[in-house]
Predict the structure.
Amino acid sequence: MNRSMTRKHRTLLTLLTAVLTATAAPMVAPGTAEATTGGRACLFLDKEGARIAGRTYGHVAWAIRDPKNTNHWIWGATEGYKGKLHIAAGDYNGSWIKGGTWDGLRRSIKRDGRHRAGYYDAYRCINTASGDLKAAQRTYNNMKDNGYDIGFNNCLTKSIAIFRKYSPSLSNKHLPDGRGVPPRNYFATTLDHARGWEKARTY
């Protein structure tokens, strides 16, 4: 074997070693990559919610993750009260908020397997580079007593406002306006055409 061939083999061996070393790096365990993505916002759908005059508009709840502690979430919803289409500011509008782990969230937002109002059928999420829980909580506190309107100040519009304060990166391209849109349509159709949202999944 001549010197030229020896040099070529050495070069090939060096390249092969570099490739093998790179591909031999430990794989990220399932779930770890998601845990390091920072912020995360999720919308939960109750298909049977808001049944009015023979039509079902659907109901949604919101959830956001602490980017500094990915095992901590806060979540909530505005559920209205006694089927009223409009609730004046200052009157009870069924708003609530909770905090805890993802498992605690899933126990709180009960899964529906029988098409029952008050139980949730599916959820879908979007990752964000960061998230501000305090800003989101302030927004919730500002809105919890500002009334309710079936089309323009409801479970969906309040969720969107909370998401946008949580992460300003959730612009209209990622999070379209929800006023006048039935929550079940927004969840199933509008978010299909918005950027970054994962497909709906059951839990």
Summary: The chain has six helices and nine strands.
